Protein: NAD(P)H-flavin reductase
Amino acid sequence: MRSSTTAKFDIGENEYQPVNGLITRTRPFTGADKLFEIQLPDGEELGHQPGQFVQLLVPGVGEAPFSVTSSPTKPGPFELTIRAVGNVTRALHNMEPGDTVGIRGPYGSGFDPDVFEGEDILFIAGGIGLAPLRSMINYTLDERERFGELTTVYGCKEPVEQLYPDELEEWAEGDAMEYFETVDQCPQDQEWDGPTGVITSIIPEVDIDVETTKVLVCGPPVMYKFVLQELDEMGVPDGNIYLSLERNMHCGRGLCGHCQINELYVCTDGPVFHYPVVRDKQEAEV
Structure:
């Protein structure tokens, strides 16, 4: 297994010059979400830290930041899970294996596995927020002996919006990690035999040591407020909580100001933040 200290891919002297990334595989999950596997030149590995991101350029269309969803323990190509919501992402969804994109990075501050070594960890993911957390989840599973008890709580709007169904089944059936899931609702034309309700409705079911467990959270902006309230009611100290604010990323280098949270820049100071750092920042909306 590769460790968290793997050297970062050498992007060359000009960090603003993308390198070619070859799309080697795609997999659609829902009508809007698709996984892309991307190979760097000469078979180089990205060497990212879980929670970091890359800037991806679709030639002739534009560039956007995306969290890396594969673990650095996975050899070869890296993976991105992308929702089609804008010009760049819709153009990317029309691309196929064999097509080339531009890649810059990895950038930002991620989840440093060394910080969590020996600790119990609770992952809380909402919707597409599972994508950036998946990198750290799979890292801890691949390096299982380095970590304490592992628990994942995942919620999405409805069953068809679940990401990585094969992995979710493995997590649920395996004994390496406790896994809980819910959906907000189940339309009549879909099948679901699990809990129904917002993600905070199942968090109290989780059996953790609230004083020591580290909690890693990523999801839609509205989720943070209610998840943090629930964790506070459970007695989880603020210092045990880490948030990925990856949806605030923009240019990747903190130059355009779109990612600014008071004096912080999500692209460079984050996207992963220790909760006490952003707790009182009004613009963080947490």
